C-alpha cells in the first residue's frame, strides 16, 4: 500500500496507541501508524466516502456515505462506484474525496480478528481509525476480472450492481 507522507502523518495524529506499561496514551510513530493503517484497510471492508455536496440545499456542505471496499492485494482500496450515488456524483463534479475507516467497519457476518495493533480494549474511540486522502482511479480492463472476483469475495451481494447490470451504471475504482 502506498500512502503519501502527509497521509501517514494525518494517521499518526489521529490514531491513539496504548503503552504496555500503562502510561498515558500517546500518538504512535509514523511507522506504527502505517502498520495500523495497513491492518485496517486489509481487515475491514466498509468505508465512509467523504465529499463536498455540489447541488441542492446541501451545496458546499460535507457529506459522508458508507460504501463497500475491498483490499485486493496492493493495499489501495477497491470500490464499486455506482454512478448515480451522491459520493461519486460529487467527486465527478470536482469535490475532493477522503475515505474514513475504523475498527469494526465490516459486515456483521464477517469474522474479523478483533485484536488490532494500537487498540485500546473496549474503546471504539481509543481504537485505530484513519482518514485517507487521495483520488479515485478507474481500474484497467486487464485488472477488472481479478478485482471483481476479489471484491465479490468480500461483498457477495454486490453482484447485483456490477458493471453491465441493467439497473445502475457502475464501474470499479481504486483509491490511490
From TrEMBL:
* Entry annotated with the keyword Signal: yes
Task: Give the species this sequence originates from.
Answer: Cyberlindnera jadinii (strain ATCC 18201 / CBS 1600 / BCRC 20928 / JCM 3617 / NBRC 0987 / NRRL Y-1542) (Torula yeast)
Q: What is the protein's given name?
A: CREG-like beta-barrel domain-containing protein
Q: Where is the signal peptide?
A: 1-17
Ranges where the CREG-like beta-barrel domain occurs: 28-176
Keyword annotations of the record: Signal
Do the record's keywords include Signal? yes
Q: Which SUPFAM superfamilies match?
A: FMN-binding split barrel (SSF50475)
Q: Which InterPro entries match?
A: CREG_beta-barrel (IPR055343), Split_barrel_FMN-bd (IPR012349)
Amino acid at each position: 500500500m502506498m500512502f503519501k507522507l502527509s497521509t501517514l502523518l494525518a494517521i499518526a495524529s489521529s490514531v491513539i496507541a496504548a503503552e504496555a506499561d500503562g502510561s498515558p496514551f500517546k500518538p504512535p510513530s509514523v511507522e506504527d501508524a502505517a502498520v495500523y493503517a495497513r491492518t485496517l484497510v486489509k481487515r475491514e471492508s466498509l468505508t465512509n466516502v467523504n465529499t463536498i455536496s455540489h447541488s441542492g440545499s446541501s451545496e458546499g456542505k460535507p457529506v459522508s456515505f458508507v460504501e463497500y471496499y475491498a483490499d485486493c492485494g496492493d493495499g489501495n482500496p477497491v470500490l464499486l462506484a455506482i454512478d448515480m450515488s451522491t459520493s461519486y456524483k460529487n467527486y465527478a463534479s470536482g469535490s475532493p474525496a477522503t475515505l474514513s475507516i475504523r475498527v469494526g467497519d465490516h459486515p456483521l457476518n464477517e469474522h474479523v480478528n478483533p485484536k488490532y495493533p494500537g487498540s485500546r480494549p473496549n474503546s471504539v474511540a481509543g481504537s485505530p481509525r484513519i482518514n485517507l486522502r487521495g483520488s479515485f482511479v478507474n481500474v484497467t480492463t486487464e485488472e477488472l476480472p481479478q478485482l471483481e472476483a476479489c471484491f465479490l469475495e468480500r461483498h457477495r451481494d454486490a453482484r447485483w450492481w456490477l458493471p453491465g447490470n441493467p439497473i445502475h451504471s457502475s464501474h470499479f475504482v481504486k483509491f490511490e
